[in-house]
## 1
Amino acid sequence: MKKTIIYLLLCLVLVACGASVDGEKQKYAEYEQYSDMIMNKYPQFASQVELERNMAEKKYNDAIKVKDDDKKIAALENANRVFENGFVGNYKKFETATYDLENQIKETDRQISDKDFTRKTSQLIDDAKETLKDSENLLKDATTANSGLILSLEREIKNLNDAKGNLEAHVKSINAKNTKKKDKKDEKIDNSSDEPTLADEPAQIKCKRCGTMQTADSETCSSCGAQI
């Protein structure tokens, strides 16, 4: 009974997450293509990548033989997890984080105007560029894709994402300040428009006899009664 409940819950999770046999097969194919790219780009990592591929391939072939779709999805996910948790998956996350940070540096430079470009802005951009440089050197200096390199990749992924987050927060803070300034300026304009102006006041003329100011449409002086 307990096993049945667990199985049903697993099925519900798979449905809720939108997992499918075709989707997992596609993910596996993408990991295979990605692993080919890594081996071509970094021959020194080929043995580790090939090892992960062989392990994933065995699990994948076993998964294909499963008849029940829900169980097949779970088995295919298990095959893809070999890539995800290994060097191939971490390198993919690393490349994505690198690309995202490079774009965020460009976006920060584009979105922040010269008058808002502070010393902090410059420092954050310099720190982000230094993080990119450190990340590039990590793979350049590595000779093998062992567990130590995977841990280093995980740390660099965090550093890259943190640098991106710092830039995003800085841009958001500046935009919020500018929006607040604009709102205050608009409020001041709205308030000033409610104040009476000379154009709103009726025209006045001076009584020739007593000098009291009267509205232009008055016929007699309100003070001395003389004709206006």
## 2
Amino acid sequence: MIREDADGNAFAGYLTANDAEDPATELTYQLAETSSGPFVIRGNSIYLKEGAHLDFDEHPTYDLAVRVTDSHGGSTTEMVTIRVLDVSDEEQPPIDIVLTHSSIAENASNGSQIGAFTIIDPDQGDAFHLELVGSADGRFALFDGRLTVADGSRLDYEQDPAHTIRLRLTDASRHSMEKEFTISLLDADENTPPPPPPPPPPPENSAPTMMMLDGVQVVENVSNGTRIGQLRAHDPDNDAMTFSLLDNSDGRFAIVDDYVVVNDRTKLDYEQATTHQITVRVTDDHNNHRDAVFTIHVRNDLRDDDP
């Protein structure tokens, strides 16, 4: 899955395969000659081509024919579906930036935290980038969304009791805004050492990202329990993750040991429907979750056509 506003060389997904005859063999991946479009394969990863642009309204999905070859020269070709994530054309710019605390003792040690920035954005869940474009001549720094002391030796209440910084915020739709903040210095007793800085708050836990299904095709009439593809996801905090089905396509599919499997073979009929959609949720052990929709392609069982 990849956002439609992704830049060139953006990551789109991992490729995995197994060789039952020689599990230790080295596998290489490449696009088959019949595949064209805005993607390239490097190693076992799919990337957006340099200079390529995506449009959800024109191409919500791309089906890539990927050839995997083992070290003995054996190869097979499978279809991999890349889903383009719609980015609303009506996304709104951020409204405000709030600093939770704006004062610090003079001569505070480098790395001391002053306050955390909070973003007010009408687009819930929008990603954003913060940049300190005015650091009061190097006195302050931005670290993980928090304002910290960069050079405490230049924080002298008697020389200047306040300093101005400027912050720039850019969201995922490239809307940006800037805001100035005044940082006040607290007069300290020069005869006693300053108190130690307060401990930083624990980092916020993030939801899993980049959910992938490495197989999206199944032949009609296969047995219940047949594996279609393995689900994978990345969690920025390395939390344990579990997968569940929010929509199992009327009972056709199930998840067993992180694999999407056939649950009711009688409902997989190529002549009646060639594709079915499922909705998968991945949840980490902090109950953060992300949902994704995958299209399962039903292939014709040629034995049905035998006289």
## 3
Amino acid sequence: MISWWSRRLRQNRHLMTGPELPSHADEVPDDPSNSEPGRVARHDGLIWIDQAGKVKITNPRGRHGRYAVLAVPESDTLGVSVNGRRVVGECVVEKTDQVTVRLSVQAPETLLDVHISPDGMEATLTVTYRPGVRRILQPTVPAPRLEIRPTEVPLGSPPATLAQVQTKLASTGITVGVIPSEAIQRFLDRRESGTLVIARGIHPRRMPHFSWKLKLAIPMALWFTREV
């Protein structure tokens, strides 16, 4: 008689509390804030970013657990989709959802430009360094809510080289009057945006019984001829 009541009591307890839930300790990384490593302090669904930058999700445990929430700010440099649909704002997610995060990358640039003065007697080199930006997702601890906040990592611009400058001068047509290569290299070694007067022409002078001409470059070609 006592054993029958014991079995009945155990059955009633099972109905009230529900079946025993499997452990999720192997799915959720240890949270330093928990008193016992490997155990989850609450039964809500959890969401986090792992070491590989992937979004991981677990479902709630028990009858009253809440599903995890993914929060995505509106941004031109960030695109998040859940099961192929773009998400902006808050979205309830579960373990079977496929979360894809696309982060834009701004490539660094090094720009070279040669400007010729209106009188055609001077050429100025302009070097502009534009650093790039790479965006990454930092690992987070499991929590009921995750807001996607990429971290920006600067990308340095490649250095301008003397060969690039010489190619730019040749494409512009500047062949004479160029300052020494050593002076150009010292300017480039600074690795800073700036300008440098890279070529100068010679202004004509009055000289009796002399035919003279000046050829600085093409399209800087200036031919001055005077017969006295």
## 4
Amino acid sequence: MAQVFTLEPAPARPAVRPVVPVGVRPETTELPSEWLALDDVAVPEGIIDRVLIGPNGVFTVHFDPDLRPAAIRPQGVIRNGLRVKEPVKTALRNTFALRELLAADHPLVHPYPVLVTESPGEGARLGRLLVVRPGRLAEAIWTHVSRALTRSERADIAALLRHS
């Protein structure tokens, strides 16, 4: 059985359609050990809560600090009838900053932004931003269609982010 690690935030703070591996439930909060999670990755624009590097891509995960439920609409994240811009802007801005950081050594790698927020739906997209509920992150990442990364690419990206 593969080792697993949790994707939820710490308590203190060639295009292929991947499939969820055998033994990993879609609703799980865990990914197999072939995934690497780097917490609190600094980029010029700020801090990315978690960067996940795995067989089907690089994902920047931002955890919404507001735990109240939000509706996901085409115009954005709506909470108490008002559009909430900051978590969306932060996720997109930091992902773009990471893309710029990786561009010199890995021009074909495009990180995918993910916002984890409490919402009644199953998940949605706001343009390029994937919005998922807590506990559904592993499923969203495993079913995301993207360019597959080789082991050596994943290791190079991880080393670059650890030393930046």
